[in-house]
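**User:** Here is a favour to ask of a fellow structure person. Please take any protein you like and set down a full record of it. No explanation is needed for now; the record alone will do.

**Assistant:**
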Amino acid sequence: MHANGTSTERLEGMLVPGVERAVGDVRRWLRDFLEDDPRLYDCTVCVSELMTNALRYTDSGRGGQILIKVFAAPERVRVEVTDDGGSRSAPRLRDPGGTEVRGRGLLIVDAMAAEWGVERVDPGHRVWFVVSGGR
């Protein structure tokens, strides 16, 4: 909190259609929101991976939508990606093997984020990550 009692955390959300071009739209929106924040690159890579997963594996990519929320504070940025459901299972880490082209998205998030997780929200999932470090 500032001395005047106002919070330094900022929140913004964006609802996008479940189409591939939305990934670029969200990256631009995130860049505008975080501006010169040193955590921008890690956040952009991670949100791109989570959006791609939502498009590829859930009803979000079959005519649905994706909800993105960003909570930015001096010590951390938390990003949430909520899909429309319809996947066969919850998102999870897996070993894609050396020759598979897909399956590395959550491995990338796991490597770049300080923490991440999955929450069941009816009818889909909210996958979130936190990138730590100060402005």
In short: The CA atoms of residues 46 and 109 lie 5 Å apart.
